[in-house]
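Intended use. Records like the one below are meant for learning the mapping from a protein sequence to its folded structure. Do not use them to infer anything beyond what is encoded.
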Amino acid sequence: MTPDRLFAPGLRGFSASTMTVVAVAAYNNLSVGAALPAIGDDLGSLELLPWVVTVELITSAIATLAIGPVIDGIGTRRIYRVSLVAFAITCVACAAAPTMGALVAARAAQGLAGGAIIANVMAAIGLGVPEPLRARAYAINSSVWGVMGLAGPALAAVVLTVAGWPAIFLINLPVAFGAAVIGWNHFPGPVEEGRVRADWRGLLLLTVFTVLTLVGFSIPGVWTAVAAAGSLALIGVYVMHERRTEPPVLRVRHLASSQFRRLHLIAVLAVVSGIGSNSFLTLYVKGTRGFTTGAAAFTVLFLTVGWTTGAIVSSKLVEWRSSEFAVRVGAIVLTVGVTGAVVVVAADLPVWLIFIAYTLVGYGLGAVSSSILIVLQAKAKPAEMGRLISAHQFVRTLGFSYGAAIAGAALFGVIVNRLGDADEVRDLLSDEVVVTSAAAVEALRDGFLLAVVVSAVFGWVALAFALQLQEEPAPVAA
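Structure written out for the chain above:
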């Protein structure tokens, strides 16, 4: 079996469509992370800077949940069209944001569109690609992340230098337009045509749950206990709601049944570890290692190239051994990488060593994420593919949100505790020659170290669960 089979006449347009839309999502994620120092330097309000990343992930998770029943009811083709148009509009809103608060609001809207796009693509692969080819489909789409990992930072660095951070968002527009043109008619329609019933009450309960848990992670202390108690209560309320509602926005069995729950948990823990440790790498190398804004933009390269490599290698492991084996290997490499990052930052070792560590982190994330999706889709009924994959994307996106929130709380908690005001480190994010206190540099460095240490703990827990997975035979190619 070779990747060309994904580009046979029946799959050619669909495969090209998924690759293009993944490019849209990849560039958006990579460029925003690369632009964080420039955004913080320009707009100030650094205490809100983590929310530029986090809020987009929150609303993306909500959109992922809401879109599942819609996929099963009207198919992926219509969602593809609407979500791309909405994404283009939100890119303009982000570029035009005059304050950090306005940018956070625009990013919230962008998350709704982006979450729909990604959940739709994952479900479409499950519906449009034969099972023996799915591992290769994920590997080929992950290669797009690799290409963007190489080209994205360079493009972001040029854009930041020449046109400033608003252009980071505007440059998404031609890519989104190209994705719309290529994929307008190639995504699958509904498996069983039916009326879409929106479970607004269930969606509201899960939205409040998401916000509460995120507040608990973002603001350690009393708020953590309050948020935890409220979240547990909401889980109970939702379980009762789900039993009385047909169809619910999220079926509890898609998360809690014995065949799914460990897979979801491993994915969430791995993402919290990898994304939490990497979210503020650009700030760290900019503020403590003396990188320019353009050079700092390139630091996103290592995670994405590692992610692509992990997805490609794991697709081979799936064919040779099993998806569960590929998950275990990915979890081991992830843990080695994030632990290595702790050592490099703590000992102030040469910066190139931390880039090696984050390449390993990326490998682990790519291997774990793609392999778990393959296992889930093999277990899913076709008529429930949208809802099961949306449920997984929801909890996985929560992992992205929690990872960024936990890292942000650790980083800025140390800074505020040491300096009294996060904006005191703003000058460290500027390319201008300024005199900054050694205390500001040390606070940024120690805050980043704490964020990476906490992230490493989640990686070790993910590994413990991954080692317990039972292997099943790999699918046989037709």
